Amino acid sequence: MLRYFYNQTFIIKTIVLTSIFVNCGCAPLIFNATSLATVNAYDSEKGASLSLSDTFIKAQIKETLFQTNVNDFRGVSVFVNDGTVLLTGKVMKPDVRIESTKLTWSVRGVKEVINEVIVSDGSSVRDAAKDLTAETSLKFKLLSDKEVSSTNYNIDVVNGIAFISGVSKDKNEMNKVISIAKNIKYINEIVNYLILSESLSQ
Questions:
Q1: Of 33, 96, 149, 165, which is least packed with CB atoms within 10 Å of its CB?
Q2: Which of 100, 121, 142 is the last residue of a domain?
Q3: How many CA within 13 A on the CB side of residue 39?
Q4: Residue 29 lies in a domain
Q5: DSSP run (H or E) holding 76
Q6: Which of 72, 64, 163, 42 has its CA nearest to residue 109?
Q7: Which pLDDT tens digit goes with each residue over 140-171?
């Protein structure tokens, strides 16, 4: 259902943008990864230029981690808001967690690194399934709520802890997101890294 929603949204955006270019007599429209990032950026509370910058920083971090050791950092998730990087997920050794911070700081444009990566000797399949269920449920709840701009939020659930980052348009939306998360099965704790859109312009 989620895949259908995003595909449908992309098709609508493509039709609208194509129509604009055709009507103004501009050159043919070519879509690639950067074009898609540009389209999605305008849906974000952060705005186009800031979203694009964060997108490129995230891509550079993931590339740096995977080129260093794809197996060590396979379980690390990366979220970026205005140059502030949040790392979540699991690694097998403490030194890998430390290395993830060092490598992230090596990427140009990073202003702050918040490392919430958990060192684990391996969670059971049952625990991993619970985390995935909770994460999927929360994402679906946010997507279904018309009062929440779900594309502005990143969700990662590790060992029953929900790490929520992103940009809320106002305090009411922020409180609603947290409230929804509190009622999701298998989420035992919430770490709130949300910021208000008004703070980005200060």
A1: 33
A2: 121
A3: 19
A4: no
A5: strand 76-81
A6: 64
A7: 999 999 999 998 888 888 889 998 888 899 99
Q: Which residue has the tokens 């430390």?
A: 98
Task: Measure the CA–CA gap between 106 and 112, rounded to whole angstroms.
Answer: 11
CA dihedral 194, 159, 129, 132 (to 10 degrees): 10
Residues 117 and 142 in one domain: no
Q: Are 100 and 115 in contact (CB under 8 A)?
A: yes
Residues 148 and 193 in one domain: yes
Q: Could you read off the pLDDT of 96-125 as tens digits, one per residue?
A: 988 999 999 999 888 889 999 988 766 666
Crossing angle of the two packed helices 48-69 and 94-105, in degrees rounded to 10: 140
Entry pTM: 0.55
Same domain, residue pair 178 and 140: yes
- Which one, of 51, 108, 38, 48, lies nearest residue 82 by Cα? 51
What is the signed CA dihedral for 63, 66, 68, 72, rounded to 10 degrees? 150
Residues 89 and 129 in one domain: no
Is residue 116 located within the same domain as residue 132? no
